[in-house]
Specification:
The protein is an alpha+beta fold. It has 3 domains: about 100 residues, Rossmann fold, CATH 3.40.50.800; about 260 residues, BirA Bifunctional Protein, domain 2 (2-Layer Sandwich); about 130 residues, YbaK protein, CATH 3.90.960.10. The chain is built from 16 helices and 30 strands. Strands 4, 8, 9, 10, 11, 12, 13, 22 and 25 form a 9-stranded mixed sheet that branches. A 6-stranded mixed sheet has the order 1-27-26-28-29-30, with helices on both faces. Strands 17-15-16-18-21 form a 5-stranded mixed sheet. A hairpin with a 4-residue loop joins strand 29 and strand 30. The two termini are about 20 Å apart. The protein binds one RNA strand through helix 15.
Length: about 575
RNA sequence: CGGGGCGUGGCUCAGCUUGGCUAGAGCGCUGCGUUCGGGACGCAGAGGCCGCCGGUUCAAAUCCGGCCGCCCCGACCA
């Protein structure tokens, strides 16, 4: 495809790690001359980096087109009035970058484009016959992240593919959702990722059906729980594992409820110090929040954390924290002494939600709702007044799989590179994107939206594939396919063969980089490995026997190949994906 | 936003505690020469408002105050 000569190319590689880079991908992208930081979470993309980006985007674009998508380009600056129509001008909060123009009109820099695309078609799509419609763009997004991190992994200005679909009814929307799911799998398979598709929380964007695509890597910022035996995998907040039926109190006699003094006890650990029997799994943790203006106590085993995301999502309510003063007024005790025994005596407006893991449990400990006292011998169904049973705990590894019931959940770290949502009519209703149905009535279109972090993909690929020497690109997105390394550019034979090979491979569709710099061989070797080109041809002493040395970056193996065989040898290797 | 740290040639850092004369190192860069299969060597050089503003002092990279920027941990987050 093209031949690039390094002496005419801008490839500022570095010997030393940058001082501000924590993870491998960030370090290597800077060292390999792919990116440079302008400001916190804001990066310039250099020629080598942009080559990788272009290849990633190509794959994404091909698969989006295959799935019926139509590429568009939507404005980055978006007027306040539009965002007010969906209520997100206030909901999105400080994460949206905002500014005013010279007339004092307010704008936001688009973190996502539901409003713009919906508004765009609202007036012009009038009939169910026009559906489905799938639009996508690959463009720069802005989010004022609380804490930008890890180079392009979490930056404030980044590139993303976002797609939006419009449908006449729910079935059609679901069908497109499935199509996108397939397209996403094809994309991540083609790139060569080791990834998991997981059930995801839908969060503030709304809707009911959602999956994330997580590239598995130690440095991932998200926790994924996946089944050891089947395909089940979920974002940790979304996961609903099955708890073991064997409790620590199994086999013990059921004790009576007994109040006892616990001066100064405020935490699970404090109680354990007073009574060594009160291990965390035997304590009932009581956490309180406001739900629709009603104080609510959530009960869960003491060795678990509360899962606010899941509670909010499954009950469809907003949950808000309470101040210590509000808690005392509602419960008559401070947070360290809360408990659900006789709660109705303290207040009749309080409701109690208990985690499923507490079913049938007994001989437990909990706060007495009176500062300085706790109960022991608590039997959940006998002593506590529960209004609702549901999952309020954050699932942990080791819980049973809810799908196959034979496997266990294990935790892995993941980098979120894709997220798909079934949206429903949240935006189409707000923005009056309505169509006439087959029966002649008017109704809002059903929507879906689908994102892929195209710049983040680059970092994820490096996290998943690098070594001490540098990056090891998968063939699918490597900036070049072949690195031609003549030991000495002064050597006439080496120069002549380099040029000939470069032209030949270029004509065969390869992207070729020729290291024609007048630097020592070691520099060339090191740079070629740092930037991670899949194949390297070294032209040196063996050229006297009409041979070149082939290095396969991914395996580190080298072999001497006769000049006349090199084209076939590379074709062979590419075909078998090495 | 809370806690911690940092800011000195292009890069990575020392110097600051205990103020003192021309502000240093390695890498990188320029020129010449020697090298030429794993980040070569010699010689000669260029390059710094020590983040910014103010204060203390005979004297500030160094001490004090304010501001700006960057990083880490946490909270938070389609």
């Amino acid at each position: 495809m093209s031949e690039v000569y390094l002496s005419n190319y801008y490839l500022p590689t570095r010997k030393e790690d940058p001082a501000d880079a924590e993870v491998s991908s960030h370090r290597l992208m800077v060292r390999a001359g792919m990116i440079r930081k302008l400001s916190s979470g804001v990066y310039s993309m250099l020629p080598l980096g942009l080559r990788v980006q272009a290849r990633v985007n190509n794959i994404v674009r091909e698969e989006m087109n295959r799935a019926g998508g139509m590429e568009v380009r939507l404005p980055i600056m978006q007027p306040r009035s539009l965002w007010e129509q969906t209520g997100r001008w206030s909901v999105y909060g400080p994460e949206m970058m905002r500014f005013k123009d010279r007339k004092d009109a307010e704008y936001g820099l688009g973190p996502t484009h539901e409003e713009v695309i919906t508004d765009l078609i609202a007036d012009e799509v009038d009939s169910y016959r026009d559906c489905p419609l799938i639009f996508y763009q690959i463009a720069t997004k802005f989010r004022d992240e609380i804490r930008p991190r890890f180079g392009v992994m979490r930056s404030r200005e980044f590139e993303m593919k976002d797609a939006y679909s419009f449908h006449a009814d729910e079935d059609e929307a679901r069908e497109t959702y499935r199509k996108m799911e397939t397209a996403y799998r094809r994309i991540f398979d083609r790139i060569g990722f080791n990834y998991r598709q997981v059930e995801a929380a839908t969060g503030a964007i709304g809707g009911s059906l959602s999956h994330e695509f997580m590239v598995l890597a130690e440095t991932g910022e998200d926790a994924v729980l996946s089944c050891t035996d089947c395909d089940y995998a979920a974002n940790r907040e979304k996961a609903s594992g099955l708890v073991s039926e064997s409790h620590p109190e199994a086999g013990e006699d059921v004790k009576e409820l007994e109040e006892f003094p616990t001066p100064g006890v405020e935490t699970i650990e404090d109680l354990l110090e007073i009574d060594p029997e009160a291990s965390p799994e035997r304590q009932v943790k009581t956490m309180v929040y406001m739900i629709d203006g009603r104080p609510t106590a959530f009960l869960l085993p003491g060795d678990y954390d509360l899962n606010e995301t899941k509670i909010a999502e499954e009950s469809g309510v907003e949950i808000e924290g309470m101040s210590p003063g509000e808690i005392y007024d509602a419960f008559g005790a401070h947070p360290g002494s809360l408990g659900a025994v006789n709660l109705s005596e303290a207040s009749n407006e309080v409701q109690v939600w208990a985690d499923l893991a507490l079913k049938e449990r007994y001989n437990l400990y909990t706060g007495a709702n009176r500062d300085g006292y706790h109960y022991r011998g608590v039997k959940v169904e006998r002593d506590l007044e529960i209004d609702r049973w549901c999952q309020v705990r954050l699932s942990k590894p080791g819980e049973g799989c809810p799908h196959c019931e034979s496997g266990q959940l294990e935790e892995q770290r993941g980098i979120e590179v894709g997220h798909i949502f079934y949206l429903g009519d949240k935006y189409s209703s707000a923005l009056k994107a309505e169509i006439t149905t087959a029966t002649g009535s008017s109704q809002p279109m059903i929507m879906g939206c689908y994102g892929i972090g195209t710049s983040r993909i680059i970092a994820a690929a490096i996290e998943q594939s690098h070594d001490e020497q540098g990056i090891i690109w998968p063939q699918s997105i490597a900036p070049f396919d072949l690195y031609i390394l003549p030991i000495s550019w002064q050597d006439e034979r080496q120069r002549e063969v380099s040029e000939r090979l470069a032209e030949k491979f270029s004509n065969l569709g390869y992207e070729v980089l020729v290291d024609d710099r007048d630097v020592s061989a070691g520099v060339k070797f090191n740079d070629s490995e740092l930037i991670g080109i899949p194949y390297r041809l070294t032209l040196g002493r063996s050229l006297e026997n009409d041979e070149v040395e082939l290095l396969i970056r991914s395996t580190g193996e080298t072999e001497e190949v006769p000049l006349e065989d090199i084209v076939d040898r590379l074709k062979e290797l590419k075909a078998q994906g090495e």
